[in-house]
Structure formats: C-alpha cells, structure tokens
Amino acid sequence: MRKGKEMVRHARGAALFLLACFASAARAATAIPDGLLPNGNFEEAPARSQLDGTRVTGRYAIPRWEVSGFVEYIGSGQKQGDMLLPVPEGAYAVRLGNEASIRQQVTNLAPRARYSITFSAARTCAQAERLNVTVDPESDVLPVQTVYTSSGWDSYSWAFEARRSAVTLVVHNPGADDDAACGPLLDAFAIKTLQPPRRTKNNMLKNGDFEEGPYIFRNTPWGVLVPPMDEDDYSPLSPWMVLSSTKSVKYLDAAHYAVPRGARAVELVAGAEAALVQDVGTVPGRPYRLEFSAGDAGDGCAGSLGVQAYAARGSVKVPYESEGKGGFERGVLEFTAIANRTRVVLVSTAYTVKGDGTLCGPVVDDVSLVRTRAHAARRLLL
Q1: Which N-terminal stretch is annotated as signal sequence (predicted)?
Q2: Which of 218-227, 230-239, 261-270, 277-286 comes out lowest in average pLDDT?
Q3: What is the DSSP letter of 176?
Q4: Which of 128, 122, 212, 119 is closest to 170 using CA atoms?
Q5: Of 199, 238, 205, 245, the residue nearest 341 (C-alpha)
Q6: What angle do CA 114, 234, 42 make, to 5 degrees?
Q7: Domain covering 273-378 in this structure, CATH number
Q8: Domain 35-194: which CATH class?
C-alpha cells in the first residue's frame, strides 16, 4: 500500500513538473521578441484618403499606431524649405507638431519585468525640442536639442517596469512653437527585455562591463543615447544612472566602435555635464579598489580624453591622449569606505568635438570594484 501511495505521489509530482515546464515554454513562446515594434519603422503607410498633404488626418491612419494632434507622415528626402528631412530606417518617419503624440499598445510582456525602448529622433525647426515618453505610471521628458551625430539623427533609450502584460507606450511633443508643425522627427521604435544585472565574485558592481543595455540597431552606426534620469527611474543601463540636467551618455557596440572589452561600452560625450554613477554597498573603514578602462572609440575623437573617477573621499584622473583610432588605459583608485553605501562616479574631464562638429569623449568599460586586504596585511606585519 505504501509503495502504491509513493508511486501516486511521484506521478503527481512529475505531472506538476511537466505542467510547469509547459507553462514556462508557453510564456517564452508568447514573450515579446527583442527588435522593432509592430510597424515600428512606419513603413506600413496610411491610406491616401487619411492624409492631407503630409498631415495624418485619421486617428488610426498609421497601422498599429494611434495619433493625436498635428502629426505628419514624412518620406525620405522630403524638404521643408531648404532643409532636407532624412529618414534613418526605411523610407518613412513621423513628425510630431505642438502637443502631438503617437501611441501603441505593447503586449506579451511579463509583469514586473523591465524593458527598454530604443527609438531614433531628429530635430527639425524648433530650438528646444523635448519628448515626453510614458508607460503608465512612469513618464520622463527626454531632451533632444543636443545633436550628437553629423546626420542629425540620434537613437535614444528609455526603460520601464511592466505592471501588466499589456501597456501603452506614448510619445508626446510638449512643445509650443510658433509654427504648429515644428517638432521632432521620429522613427525606428524597438524594444528589448532587460535581464536583471547581478554581481559576480570578482566584482561588487553590477553590469560593470556594460554588456546589458538597450537595443542597438545593426544598421545605425551612431550608438544609443542613455539620457539623464531621476534616481528613482529604471535605467536602460541598470543599475548605472546618468546624472545630468540635459545631456546624455552614448552606448556603443563593438560592430561600429573600438570597445576595450566585450561587445559594449559607454562613451562620455557631454564633458563634465553628464556623470555615469552607481551606488554599491560597502563597509565603513574597509579598503576597496576600483579599476576601469578609459580610451577612445576609434570614431575620430582625437585629443585629451581624460576620465575622472570618484568614490568616497578618493579620486583619480586617468589621462589619455587619443588619435581617434582606438585604444585604452587602465585606471585604478584605492579608497576607504566612509559609509554603508558608496557612489562610484565616472565623468569626462573635458569637452571634445570631432572634425564634423559633433560632441564626443572618452570611452569607459570593464569597471570593477573589489574589497582589498590592506587591513589584514597590516595586522600580519604587526
């Protein structure tokens, strides 16, 4: 009898295990894939009857999207006066005029998982353009007035935590320009599931190699900007934060840039106006060692590309003379913790401009923090 009960119990356990496996497989099969959102590059066009010139007249005219306000459907090579309006992905993009917005429902998300949105934006005729990006209840205003590429297009990233399996992504232009049609061009919306960063036995910092970050388009050789954010927001480079008022850092891939290690790195393109920071738990009075790589991205950014690092009361400057062809130096900062939390800060020491007039700066990568044994060695000597 006992043997029969044990067989039944094992059978039930096996059945529950199989059900769990099937449920997990079903979730994986329905999870949203990394890459373009449905019609994320706006190549599915509105019907001609839904357009008045370039202006979109129907609320649901652009397939997969809902629009409100003054929204234009722009073709590649179209002109506005003497200004040519390029399109980075395919043949079409949209432009948001004053108080205009586009929105799309994003489905097949895992509640409590974190995601990053990458999209391309270009200024047109307004001077201080901004974009309000929202997935309820989270919302941030991204400054787009600084242009970091010679083409005029930059890719931006933004992150959120899904509260439900279906959410609505809203991108709104809060501008109030004299010309209602003035506003940023938008194109190429993509999504990526962010994996929770973890510490390793050799590094107290999470994501110190920057391998986990926002989606980068294969055919856009200008990286992805990680804009400034409030400290309570979710970072596309989690748990790294960008502290600034209006400036960004640039997330790079090894396919288009010189990366010190691995497949990803960060370029500090805004001088001292944007700091890359991470908070980490420490023990007051204990010694630590911070190491990092500082160099150039091989993108023609030449000159003095120094990086300053701060932690507790310590700081170190790593000078680097760049020829714009790639390369790096290792920086080391040894310090003693003064609190239960220590903020690690990396910032460029100067503003640098490439020959085409665009901002650039030093590349940082392979950042590690370890506790050292200085105190123990001192006790042994005594």
Answers
A1: 1-28
A2: 230-239
A3: -
A4: 119
A5: 205
A6: 65
A7: 2.60.120.260
A8: mainly beta
